[in-house]
Design goal:
DNA-binding transcription factor activity, CheY-like_superfamily, alpha/beta, 2C-system_Tx_regulators, single chain, activator, five-stranded parallel beta sheet, two-stranded antiparallel ribbon, 10 helices, elongated, Arc Repressor Mutant, subunit A, Sig_transdc_resp-reg_receiver
């Protein structure tokens, strides 16, 4: 389990973050504090893997805390969760090595995407003694992901949005190419292109299932509910 410290001086926001965190597999709340000073005490006494860090706090702000954490060479990772959206703050946070930056207010889906991506990267890194360039680009630096503003030939932006909405509405349920084609109203040949594209984005996984007479068929399941996909298609 990934141990998380929430550093947030607004009790209501802290509680929202706690509830959001509880809904994402692989994470456990290590502690929740209201100041940078309290966070430093927790880091001395507890094992923490990830900090969800606010910027605007009294006495010592989040950037000051980040500076102290890096000065003691702590291995803890940080995701900023803040209303601070000015260029200076964001650039400074990125220079301190934050792994993501969420600007308040945000939807649960963006929070989930940040935590899920972090978890997947961490699990991948932990399972490797060494990493090849192609794996680094694809799994960590995300340089091999297809760009949604440069859709492959045969992929229509509006149809892709409809496909994604059907997948999202049926979250947790697998489906065949034929089933999804019928829901969306396109041919099976066309649907295969959309499903292949979503597999390339590592949003879908394809598995072989056998029917009652032994004939194999492919079933698809959503393995990474990337809400930013919808946002980038707007």
């Amino acid at each position: 389990m990934i141990r998380v410290l929430i550093v947030e001086d607004d009790p209501m926001v802290a509680e929202f973050n706690r509830r959001y965190l509880a809904q994402i597999e692989g994470f456990i709340l290590a502690n929740m504090v209201r100041s940078a000073a309290e966070a430093l005490i927790v880091l001395e006494k507890q094992e923490v893997d990830l900090i969800l860090l606010d910027i605007f706090m009294s006495h010592m702000n989040g950037l000051d805390l980040l500076s102290q954490i890096r000065s003691i060479d702590s291995n803890v990772d940080v995701i900023v969760v803040s209303a601070a959206c000015d260029n200076h703050t964001i650039q400074k946070a990125l220079r301190y090595g934050v792994v993501d930056y969420l600007i308040k207010p945000f939807e649960f889906e963006r929070f989930q995407a940040a935590l899920s991506a972090y978890r997947d990267r961490l699990l991948f890194m932990q399972g490797q003694d060494s990493i090849q360039q192609a794996e680094l680009d694809r799994k960590i630096l995300l340089k091999d992901q297809p760009l949604l503003n440069e859709l492959p030939k045969g992929i229509d932006r509006n149809t892709l949005k409809i496909v994604w909405e059907h997948i999202r509405d049926g979250e947790g349920h697998d489906f065949t190419t034929e089933e999804m084609a019928r829901r969306v109203g396109v041919s099976r040949v066309s649907m295969r292109k959309y499903l292949a594209f979503l597999m390339a984005l590592e949003i879908l996984r394809r598995e072989v299932a056998f029917g009652s007479i032994g004939r194999p068929m492919y079933r698809y399941r959503c393995i990474n509910p990337r809400p930013d996909l919808i946002n980038r298609l707007q």
